[in-house]
Amino acid sequence: MKIRKTIVASQIMLLFSPWSAQLASAQDGSGVTELETIYVTPAEQVKQSLGASEVRAKDIDRQGVTNDLSEIIRKQPGVNLTGNSTSGQRGNNRQIEIRGMGPENTLILVDGKPVRSRNSVRYSRRNERDTRGDSNWVPAEMVQSIEVYRGPAAARYGDGAAGGVVNIITKKKFDAFSGSVNTYYAAPYHDEEGDTKRANFNLMTPLGGNFGLRVYGSYNKTDADAWYINLLHNRSEDGSLPSTITAGREGVKNRDGNVLLRWSPAARQTLDLEFSNSRQENIYAGDAQISQGTVDAIAKGGGQFDLTDLIGQNSNTMTRNVYSLTYNGSWDNVSNTTYVQYENTRNNRYDEGLSGLAEGAISGDRSRITSRLNNLDIMSETTVNFRSPFAHSLTLGLGYTQARLHDMNIVKQQVLDPDDIGDRSPDYKTKLFSLTLEDNIILENGLTITPGVFYERHNVIGSSLNPSLNVWYALNDEVTLKAGVARAYKSPNIYQLDPDYRMYSQGFGCWGGTGPCYVRGNEDLEAEKSLNSEIGLEYKSERILTNLTFFNNDYKNKVEPGIQSEGKFGSLYEYQYYNVPRAIVRGLESTFNVRLTDRLSWDNNATYMIKSKNRDTGEALSTTPKFTLNSILAWDITDRLNANVMVTWYGKQKSRTLDSRGEPYLGEDRDPYALLSVSGTFRVSKHLNLRAGVNNVFDKQLYRSGAGANTYNEPGRLLWAGASVSF
Q: Which residues form the signal peptide (predicted)?
């Protein structure tokens, strides 16, 4: 197939500029330039979506990451950090949320392979986990780029991607001997906030015989906030201290190690054998699932919830071991990527209560409990390029996922229903088979169409078929209309499915105030599904990239604790997890990036949440700012010196409207606030880079109160510096 050099051809080249090197031109006798066939796989095409953005290694280096990559990912369009509900439980353990769909609907990948360690953490009555999520398993200095996909662009990644996908791509170089040693230190302006120390190394080298090796190791420690950080700032008008204390941010120690051996047996063929070991130890700051009374003893002394001996100590440790084998190969018109990954997570922590006020409170005997989660993932994608009847790239994917969880929390809560006494097991297993078929079609009239269909079969909840369609149309050389629609899905987690798992409440946690009750897992649940759609315009010229996107997620079957009793046994009511009939998330995203001069660039993105609502209860799905603006001004002062000014503005965050019984909750909203940060990098020599910065220059501190939307701490001014020695 040949394409004449017309305005259509230039539009196509503009649309796919990252792959424009594939275009080879020649002139026929008439002087008309002809172009070779263009092939773009569906996986590459999704990167051109409105719901796709990228964080580069130089962005991480210039802006700085204190401990968790979520700190910089949150600055992408449509992304925030929040909990999985509006309860405020575990308020400072905020995770990546995309387009208001909650952290559980964000799929984290490392080099395209899933990370699911957080699923080993017990699921609470209000749908929260005591976890920081899965964005902190790779040291910042080892990241080549981070791809963020939202809405229809994320649907191709399957189960768990209804909100979006974060793909962390690590650095790999095997053609020459290289490496680096990196250090980082962050000092908060306020003594009651924890400081951070980090050091890591990496080594990449050819070994001969078509082999290559990559090794890296890292240690990172962030101290916990002082236990009293929120105490003085939550005094009543008469100056009296609160009867309960909400904890500040817990600390964490990260230890990461990785070995990757690559074999390249032939041209365009690679086989990677990889092992990684990571360990995250928390530094306890006094947090508990329900704040009432849990750390009261610290201020007043004594009591059944006395946690004084735990402050500053380790109360939970997460260990993740990953073994993977990955094949990448391409031939004339066929390419294939196949991987097998085994992920083992050990979640060791102090035992917690599962009923009433004690849910999430560390037990007085300080016993430990270990849950083990084993995930097996097998995936193979094959793409074939066709020339007739038109140029297109067809991708067939096959996948298998198996999860095995062993957790004594499943059977720890006593059975209170006399008709439900029997054998209960702490073990539960799920299996998921998936099949995907996608085609990417680039037509001569500036139109690109990518249809897809995704089939999944879950051993408990059954089958579902989920179609998608993305369309790009070049209106002229600079303006493109982009639209997409896809049905995304998420299987219920093991705690929601397993009928042996239940949580008891004496009444405060029972919907409608019915009295003593328990919530149990439900194997009759359906998969959560979201019809994700977006439409927008993008303008792209040599110096300007801007777009405006409207997105709408019509969310069905969201899994929540039941609000209708399934029966009554004496005075005890039984509830189960159930599927919420409908919820809706709707908003706008916009990007405006401009290169002001050859050395000065200004990048901006904004997100406006029009609606986020559980239509069954009227509650928002999570506590998300109404409006978020990120703005970065980057100045390459010289070839060796760079300076950056960054501003983030968060709009009002609304309080939850209902308490755990479904009764009106009168909590405070969190008012809008803005943060200004500055940073710079200086390349001293070919082998030495220095960087430094000040976060939150104007020292805007916010304190957690546990009431309404004030569920997390916003740390004050922080000074940081780092150095990198490369060879």
A: 1-21
